Amino acid sequence: MIRLDKWLSEMTDGSRSEVKKWIKQGRVSIDGAVIRVPEIKVNPKRECVYLDNEAVLYQKFVYYMLNKPAGVVSATTDKEHQTVVDLLYPVARKDIFPVGRLDIDTEGLLLLTNDGALAHNLLSPRKHVEKTYLVHIDGTLTAEDKQCLEEGMDIGDEKLTLPAVVESAEDFGLPAGEGICITIREGRYHQIKRMFGKLGKTVVYLKRLRMGKLWLDESLEPGQYRELTAEELEMLKVQQGK
Ligand code: URA
Question: What is the pTM (predicted TM-score) of this model?
Answer without folding.
Answer: 0.88
